[in-house]
Write a structure and sequence with these properties.
This protein is an alpha+beta fold. It is about 30% helix and about 15% strand.
């Protein structure tokens, strides 16, 4: 991504959070569609570039594919949404955002008079603004394909410009509608509130204090603003470190970065999303087995089981953005890794 598109850099600090190898490693095997499978089979058949299983901060399993090396970054797609919502928490802790019940137009005045009038930050974080949106990745005329490129007004962020023209379809807070454009809006809201770019703020609040091993990369829109809903790049271990930062309640080396209780709110159901899994938090998906996860198209995920201190990361180049069988295969791997790790 960083060689093909404009990006900003999320600078790491001097400290690197160690992720030591556990004394015993796992090598789960499971049955999928009537056939026994192992990690290498799953990775080869589903074009995985990396999998990592972390328990209590120690690596139980780490594998690479597609020619990737441990120092190589890989794009997140929508896993970035969960980073963006985490930065909302940091901005609340810093006193830059007063409340999730503040209306969005307090922070993005250009949305005044639009369908976002009266919509709260909480409703953006739960994808329930009520504004009409089409997230069809196969349709070149869908909102997700056009947002950020259709309009360029002097002094106006293109995402804000595009979103301000959309009509309302539902009462705010009433219905979940998956909406990448609104996660981009949250990114604009955060950077406006803190007076810094998202990359700079992520460096200050996560990359530096928690100890990422390599600079991260964040894709920008046509105005040079980072996309709050997409496309960060980081190493496999840094994906795991971000999961660990959240699992450890947003505390980095004794410094509280996120408000106490924020992670619990963000990673438990705040709205029903119409189908299993059983709900959606603040840009985090809920699972039916006690876990929560950040998910991106083409096979990116950070799955956390907080009761077990367990984090499972996948990076992939699936042949399509999604698909029932691809998600079923990923879920089978996650459940097998969870079962194997619980006994460690």
């Amino acid at each position: 991504m960083e060689t093909a598109y404009p990006v900003e850099t999320i600078r790491k600090g001097t400290y690197v959070r160690p992720l030591p190898l556990a004394v015993r490693q796992i090598s789960p095997r499971w049955t999928f569609d009537g056939r026994e499978q192992g990690v290498e089979d799953y990775m080869a058949e589903n074009r995985l570039s990396g999998v990592l299983v972390l328990k209590d901060g120690k690596i139980l399993l780490e594998r690479y594919g597609l020619g990737r090396k441990p120092e190589d970054r890989w794009t997140s797609f929508s896993v970035a949404k969960s980073v963006t919502s985490t930065l909302v928490g940091a901005a609340i802790q810093d006193g830059k955002i007063k409340s999730l019940d503040d209306v969005v137009t307090n922070y993005i005045p250009a949305l005044k008079g639009s369908a976002y009038e009266g919509v709260t930050i909480r409703q953006l974080l739960t994808m329930s603004s009520g504004v009409r949106w089409n997230e069809d990745y196969t349709d070149p005329n869908s909102d997700v394909a056009r947002a950020g490129t259709a309009f360029r007004e002097p002094g106006q962020n293109p995402i804000v410009s595009y979103m301000s023209r959309l009509p309302r379809a539902n009462t705010p807070g009433a219905k979940f509608t998956y909406n990448t454009g609104e996660t981009d809006l949250v990114g604009v809201l955060v950077s406006t509130a803190v007076g810094k770019s998202l990359a700079e703020y992520a460096s200050e609040k996560i990359w530096g204090p928690f100890g990422m091993e390599r600079d991260g990369i964040w894709l920008t829109d046509t105005s040079g603003h980072e996309r709050g809903g997409c496309c960060m790049s980081m190493t496999l271990r840094d994906y795991a470190r971000f999961g660990l930062f959240v699992l450890e309640d947003g505390v980095a080396r004794g410094q509280r970065i996120l408000p106490e209780g924020w992670v619990k709110q963000a990673t438990t159901p705040q709205i029903k999303n119409g189908a299993p899994p059983p709900g959606y938090g603040y840009f985090w998906w809920m699972r039916d087995d006690g876990g929560y996860e950040a998910v991106g198209i083409f096979g990116q995920s950070i799955t956390t089981f907080p009761e077990d201190g367990l984090i499972i990361v996948t990076n992939a180049a699936w042949p399509t953005a999604g698909g029932a069988n691809l998600y079923r295969a990923r879920d089978a791997f996650v459940r097998a890794a969870h079962a194997a790790a619980k006994g460690m």
